[in-house]
From TrEMBL:
The lineage of its organism: Archaea, Methanobacteriati, Methanobacteriota, Stenosarchaea group, Halobacteria. This is TetR family transcriptional regulator. It holds the Pfam family TetR_N. One of its GO terms (molecular function) is DNA-binding transcription factor activity. It comes from the Archaea.
Length: 202
């Protein structure tokens, strides 16, 4: 995920902290991450971190917002065919292979997600992201029906189905697959789903 030009409207100090946290999380993961790890990637005083945040957990709530906001900024824009947009969105959420550092970031976000039942701020952020992705899926499917790329389906139901598939496969990847392991067998499930709703099966 590229964060170039993302967060330009943030307080400069906070943006620097978020960028340092981004690097530190990819190196150390969520469980082992400390404020010192973040400070090691930060070219300002460690005191500035504590000026903005009470501690690691407080900082990570802001970091989650930063990461999820960056993800939303990379959602495919309308322009290519609906099927190509859908393929791009699936690849964004589920790259077939990843190297170790991006995998650590994905795993850290998954671990933060597990806090959602106990942390309303985390839960609200994931609800917002899911709603935005669901709306994007509905829009793609609706335009795909209009352009005769997809069969006539219940857009709301199918978008929810696809969203659940994507979240479930992402969770399986992070719990039972090794970082370097291809998830092509898991993505075959999505391919089968897309074949079912497509007007032409290649």
């Amino acid at each position: 995920m590229s964060f170039e030009n993302y967060g330009d409207d943030m307080d400069p100090g906070k943006r620097d902290i978020m960028e340092a946290t981004h690097i530190a999380v990819k190196k150390h993961g969520y469980s082992d991450l400390t404020i010192q790890h973040i400070a090691d990637e930060f070219d300002r005083s460690k005191a500035l971190i504590y000026y903005h945040y009470d501690g690691r957990d407080d900082l990570l709530v802001d970091f989650l917002k930063y990461i999820l906001g960056g993800f939303l900024a990379t959602l495919p824009e309308e322009g290519s065919s609906p099927r190509e947009e859908l393929d791009d969105l699936i690849e964004l959420l589920l790259p077939t292979t990843v190297n170790e550092e991006p995998y650590r970031l994905m795993l850290s976000m998954f671990e933060l997600r597990m806090n959602a039942p106990h942390d309303e701020a985390v839960r609200e952020q994931y609800l917002e992201v899911e709603e935005r992705v669901r709306m994007a899926l509905e829009d793609i499917l609706r335009r795909g029906i209009e352009s005769n790329e997809f069969v006539d389906i219940n857009v709301e139901v199918e978008a929810e189905t696809l969203l659940s598939l994507l979240i479930g496969i992402r969770a399986r990847r992070l719990t039972v697959y090794n970082p370097e392991q291809s998830i092509e067998p898991l993505k075959a499930t999505i391919d089968a789903y897309l074949d079912r709703i497509s007007t032409a099966v290649e």
